[in-house]
Amino acid sequence: MSTKSTIGEVKHHLGESVTIGCWLNKKRSSGKIQFLQLRDGSGYVQGVVVKSEVSSEVWEAANALTQESSLYITGKVKEDTRSKGGFELDVEHIEIIQITEDYPITPKEHGVDFLMDHRHLWIRSPRQRAVLVIRAQIIQAVQQFFNERGFHLVDPPILTPSSCEGTTNLFHTKYFDEDAFLTQSGQLYMEAAAMALGKVYSFGPTFRAEKSKTRRHLIEFWMIEPEMAFIDHEESLQIQEQFVAYIVQNVLTHCRAELEVLERDTDKLAKVAGAFPRISYDKAVELLKEKGFEFEWGEDFGAPHETVIAEQYETPVFITHYPTALKSFYMKPDPNRPEVVLCADMIAPEGYGEIIGGSQRIDDPQLMEQRFQEHELSKEAYQWYLDLRKYGTVPHSGFGLGLERTVSWICGLEHVRETIPFPRLLYRLYP
Length: 431
Hints:
Elements: E1 3-4, E2 17-29, E3 33-39, E4 44-50, H1 56-64, E5 70-79, E6 87-98, H2 112-117, H3 119-122, H4 126-148, E7 152-153, E8 159-160, E9 172-175, E10 178-182, H5 187-197, E11 199-207, E12 220-229, H6 233-254, H7 256-261, H8 266-270, E13 278-280, H9 281-290, H10 303-310, E14 317-320, E15 333-334, E16 337-341, E17 343-348, E18 353-360, H11 365-374, H12 379-390, E19 396-402, H13 403-411
Family: Belongs to the class-II aminoacyl-tRNA synthetase family.
Domain Aminoacyl-transfer RNA synthetases class-II family profile: 132-431
Keywords: Aminoacyl-tRNA synthetase, ATP-binding, Cytoplasm, Ligase, Nucleotide-binding, Protein biosynthesis
């Protein structure tokens, strides 16, 4: 009798016969022995079929298997130090579920458009599986970090009547007889939640109708947005450092095999463990001029600028105190220098750009009213937000981390499209 198992659990069944539901990844034969590379989502294992040790039916079944054919395989688990998983199966029985014909994604090279058209199949490949496993581990680490520190998960709405940063890049829809938009951030709602629960975070999809085709941008992406009552800018920066270091170290601990599949230089990730360097916007402008950029104070940084700044460091770096005019209406001005705000962008190393944006929020009711006038914001649409400053206002801070950019950096990927199972890009809504 065999025990039903997964490939990931065969290490617990050494010397036993197990039955695994799986797919054939690839196959090779030496004439009298067939080597089946099998996958089931939890991992990979090699099944060895020896002609002299199995029935003719089992041998022929193995012979009939094609790439991505599905089957139940039964075999005895034994150690194999040569394999990456450390185990293999001496095959005893094969039950074919389906023989796959003309599987589109073969071991040859395919173009990106072809692979994206077949994304539903491409995610079965070892590389894409590794990325999605790491993404899942990052999500788990995010939740663990906040749960361990007393944060409450709060779900802001996806359909909103207004925007926290203007409606230019929002997807418009109708909410019965009213105008509505797909959210680009849950931040304003999280501020309200923080006034009720103290420390909160949201984790959900956001949407930006930005006609961008860069390797860093998606139309639909996931954001982690904490908000914290009674936390100032400096305290928020410390939490951000701890948060990102926690995620990276968690992935290093739990996803070594997947990082190896991706050929990621883990020595670089291992350095992301302590306090991160900081550079003010002013100093960053000076640095860019030294590097030959024509850049004036008050301009925003683009990808080339962020990359040059990041190249000076081996870990993420904070760029702090941006000009007030560059940032959102809700950011608190520096009391000692009101032309800049108490904010920071965290720039990932190795050219991956901004992964976190955060600030201390304005808590003064009069200043918030002034900001509404300056930005021509509708008081009718935002009255609930103004109420947060009217009824028990407190110092508070928050930030947002983009999940896909973080996955891209940790995995060492060229393009953000591989970081999400089914990416939504400027000209791609299929599959």
